[in-house]
Amino acid sequence: MTATKKKAVRRAKKGERIRQVAAIPFRLNEHGGIEVMLVTSRTTKRFIVPKGWPMKGKSGRKAATIEAQEEAGVLGKALKRPAGTYSYWKRLANRFVRVDVIVYLLEVTEELADWQEAKRRQRAWLAPVDAAMLIDEPDLSTLVKTLTLPGPMPLSAT
After folding, report:
1. Which of 144, 137, 157, 143 is nearest to 46 (CA)?
2. What value, to the nearest 5°, has the Cα angle with vertex 105 and ends 102 and 110?
3. Is the pLDDT of residue 77 over 90?
4. pTM
5. 40 vs 13, which has greater pLDDT?
6. What single DSSP character describes residue 135?
7. Residue 129 and residue 41: Cα distance in Å, rounded?
8. Residues 6+ away with beta carbon under 8 Å from 78
9. Distance between CA atoms of residues 36 and 149, nearest Å
10. Cβ count near 19 (within 10 Å)
11. Residue of higher predicted confidence among 88 and 65
12. Residue 70 — pLDDT band, cuts 50, 70, 90?
């Protein structure tokens, strides 16, 4: 268990809310529509977005980018402003804790054929409305379903 996770678990045991960061990897399809990538969780195999604990010395945006590479095998640029937040109940060894997640949009520039968690996760590109139907967390589902990209696109569409 990483030091950051241990610290978060200690805070959760004291009843404090804890924080994670997440990425919603996205791309534009041939018609200019948004597609998002979901990955399966390691244990329950539910569809989720790549997420993890904040990383010491890294911004939330950078940590979300690293999580997307490790969990979904995608490289890209996270947009500066968070797309939103959601909360969920995280299962720990002997309890559940409430976690607040800050979500960043990640414009995918490369999809890796082999990545760190490839053997433990599946990934899928979906239209936001379809992705939202597969997500169990209501707040994340709403965030994905109502996803809009801010202003001019930072990389590929400009």
Report:
1. 137
2. 130
3. yes
4. 0.86
5. 40
6. B
7. 20
8. 23, 61, 62, 64, 65, 68, 104, 105, 106, 107
9. 12
10. 15
11. 65
12. very high
